[in-house]
TrEMBL record:
Protein name: Pirin N-terminal domain-containing protein
Signal peptide: none
SUPFAM superfamilies from the UniProt entry: RmlC-like cupins (SSF51182)
Region listing for Disordered, in residue ranges: 1-20
Domain Pirin N-terminal, residue spans: 19-124
CDD domains reported in the protein's UniProt record: cupin_Yhhw_N (cd02910)
Protein family per UniProt: Belongs to the pirin family.
Protein's organism: Hydnomerulius pinastri MD-312
Pfam families: Pirin
């Protein structure tokens, strides 16, 4: 019998993330961002930014510019109002995934629309070599809770893969000019999911993040509880809302994610080269 394939799991605890409370914005940073700098947490594979933001009603980020990075927003609750220099204006509800390939440069604003706080994850990915100075592009996708219920739904995939269409109206995953795939799931209590990482690399990386739906809490994370480990018998790591973990897969390893808590866990999972 061949030996079991394992996964190295390094937790990134919620209270250890960079954090700031600006009144209108309450935010956590998984990686170094703005005034938060930690050389141990700069990036992982193509994943450069994973911010969990809460923006107060009728406030937000004014017009500002970006270039080169792939930037996408995953809306958890409330409505995110987006405007940009390409002429795109949208109000994005829960379930929306908005992708901007900033390329040679764009300007945009993001605000909370209406009387409710907007809670979303802002994610940046580094483009593949030679792809950072392309023409800017914009895509929006919508995914229902049912599509994510007890399965890993593919929300973002490389633009050169067979999984995506460059048609803006397509209902498949949003295209990214990067070696990154992003999945989302709503895992109900007692459910265990298995994920096989996708990609061509011989040594796979990944990152998992449990959305902090229990509210802004700079202290110990609460809410749903996951157990994350390899499909084979081996060590497991407990993750609560706001926690994440770096993943390094041996070739052939499979990830098991089990919800052994009482609430539904909303999970983002990244496959990285």
């Amino acid at each position: 019998m061949s030996p079991s394939k394992s996964i190295q799991i390094v937790p990134r605890r919620s209270p250890e993330r960079g954090q700031a409370d600006h009144g209108w914005l309450k935010t956590f940073h998984t990686f170094s961002f703005a005034s938060y700098h930690d050389p141990r947490h700069e990036s992982f594979g193509a994943l450069r930014v994973l911010n969990e933001d809460r923006v107060a009603p009728r406030t937000g980020f004014g017009t500002h510019s970006h270039q080169q990075f792939e930037i996408f927003s995953y809306v958890i609750s409330g409505k995110l109002e987006h405007q940009d220099s390409m002429g795109n204006t949208e109000i994005l509800p829960r379930g929306a995934l908005q992708m901007t390939s900033t390329g040679t440069g764009i300007s945009h604003s993001e605000k909370a629309n209406g009387p409710q706080e907007v809670h979303f994850c802002q994610i940046w990915a580094a483009p593949r070599p030679g792809q950072g100075r392309g023409k800017p592009a914009y895509f929006t996708r919508y995914f229902t809770d049912e599509e994510k219920k007890n399965r890993f739904a593919l929300l973002v995939a490389p633009d050169n893969s067979a999984e995506v269409s460059l048609n803006r109206e397509d209902k498949g995953p949003a295209p990214v000019r990067s070696e990154l795939r992003m999945f989302a799931s709503l895992i109900h209590p007692g459910i265990s999911l298995v994920h096989v990482p996708v990609g061509n690399g011989q040594q796979k990386k990944g990152y998992i993040h449990v959305v902090q739906k229990s509210g802004h809490n700079p202290g110990k994370a609460g809410g749903a509880t996951l157990r994350v480990g390899s499909q084979a018998d081996g060590p497991q790591v407990e993750l609560r809302e706001g926690d994440g973990a770096y993943l390094s897969y041996e070739i052939g390893a499979e990830l098991r994610v089990e919800n052994d808590g009482q609430g539904v866990a909303e999970v983002l999972l990244f496959d990285l080269e």
